[in-house]
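User: We ran a pulldown and think these components assemble together. Before we commit to crystallization trials, I'd like a predicted model of the whole complex to look at. Sequences follow.
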Amino acid sequence: AQSVTQLGSHVSVSEGALVLLRCNYSSSVPPYLFWYVQYPNQGLQLLLKYTSAATLVKGINGFEAEFKKSETSFHLTKPSAHMSDAAEYFCAVSRGGSNYKLTFGKGTLLTVNP
Amino acid sequence: NAGVTQTPKFRVLKTGQSMTLLCAQDMNHEYMYWYRQDPGMGLRLIHYSVGEGTTAKGEVPDGYNVSRLKKQNFLLGLESAAPSQTSVYFCASSYEDRVSGYTFGSGTRLTVV
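Assistant: Here's a predicted model for the assembly, 227 residues in total across the polymer chains.
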């Protein structure tokens, strides 16, 4: 069975500081991994995804994530936080076989302080 | 470039009333999904469809029904609304592969009083 654990339901950083949002997964097959962002009162939009090509994945708005098989992790980072990054972030894993449903983590709310 | 459109965006229902939420996508996606989002609970899958005329139960299907009569539309029905169904509902769609990910609608905020 697939599952996703996001460590920290709420992360607070200062503007200009490093953003690190943690995601660990469990999967019985090689996983495909995704990060989504949800701005207030909006739907989720895709930030980036890992699909077994490069282990370091770059996404929109300066975010990137590194797939580490040995640590079963797919942490999201951004070198310098901006006020506009304040949002909720969701990590998700895709099953293998004929079942393509995504399993989502419970989300991490990112607050950026001026 | 509409993507996934949900109607309505807001609704207030009285306990026991019924309603239908509509999701429409224009990307020719095969798969469609209904989720509910509640504080601290993340996204929970209600029902999904892997093609026109098909539906399947997700994690929290009780109290909801769905239909997919046309490929581009996925309807979520509440036959007798309960306060526990107060939530934000999201529709999503995807290709039938592992790599594309989902495209989400902007959500429907439902309050049952």
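The first strand of chain B starts at residue 4 and ends at 7. That may be worth checking against your pulldown data before setting up trials.

User: Thanks, that helps.
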